[in-house]
């Protein structure tokens, strides 16, 4: 029981929304498009200081679409996988940035990725997410779409880590 009453908030265009309704939407299982947008919006608002270190403004917009799709398809754990990919990938991109810039091998814009990079990194995972959402292949394939999603981000992260650490500590690029 909450220590305060749940009151309805009235928006003329949307009708009345109660706090308990918002909480129910956030906790929707399985996720809906509405719950995916709401959860992703809340996380992006809280995480915006981290997002701007690794993404351009248009990259953030593209990542928002990816996050919403991911939450809708795979829920919290799928979203956390993508978030960890972003955090680790951004961190290794920043390793010895000044040295990489001096050698001319650094990512453009001090490692801040744009929409092309977000799409390129997530394309295979997005295909798996859409196939999962729309139940392509039925229950027999749902595990395959999850595996493909996880494998796509793990593969992309291993590529990012190896190339960025290689540029920072390797003898050749």
Automatic annotation (TrEMBL):
Topology of the protein relative to the lipid bilayer: Multi-pass membrane protein
InterPro entries for this protein: DUF92_TMEM19
Any one cellular-component term (Gene Ontology): chloroplast inner membrane
Name under which the protein is recorded: Uncharacterized protein
Membrane-spanning parts: 41-67, 73-95, 116-137
Organism classification: Eukaryota, Viridiplantae, Streptophyta, Embryophyta, Tracheophyta
Native source species: Kingdonia uniflora
A Pfam family assignment: DUF92
Coiled-coil intervals, chain numbering: none
Main location: membrane
The organism's place on the tree of life at top rank: Eukaryota
